[in-house]
Design goal:
Layout (H helix, E strand, L loop, with lengths): L2 E5 L2 E4 L4 E8 L8 E6 L6 E7 L4 E4 L7 E6 L4 E6 L8 E10 L2 E5 L3 E6 L1
Parallel strand pairs: 2-11
Antiparallel strand pairs: 1-3, 3-8, 4-5, 4-9, 5-6, 7-8, 9-10, 9-11
Length: 118
Amino acid sequence: QVQLVESGGGLVQAGDSLRLSCAASGLTFRSATMAWFRQIPGKEREFVAVDNWYDGNTRYADSVKGRFTLSRDNAKNTVYLQMNSLKVEDTAVYYCAAVYTGGQYRYWGQGTQVTVSS
C-alpha cells in the first residue's frame, strides 16, 4: 500500500521560509516521479513543482520559480519543497503526488496547510 505523508506546513509571515517534507512508502521511490501541488479552497489544484526521475529534470510553476526548490533523498524515500521568500498568495494546502501514469498522478498525500500572513 502506497502512502505519502506530508509535514512541515505552518503559519509564517511574508518573506519567511518553510520546508515541506513528503515521506513515501510502498513504492519504488528512486524511480517515481514526485511532484508538489497546492490548492486554495474553491479553486483548482495547481502544479507547483515536479522531479522527473527518468531525465533528472525538475520543473517549476512560473509563480514559484526562483523561490521554491524541490529536492529528494532516495535513501530516506523523502521529497522536500524548500519555500523561500514566501508571499501571501502562497497560502494553500500543499499536496505531494507520486507516480505519473496515464496522464495523472496515481498517489496523493493528505496535504499540509501553509499560511502566509502579511
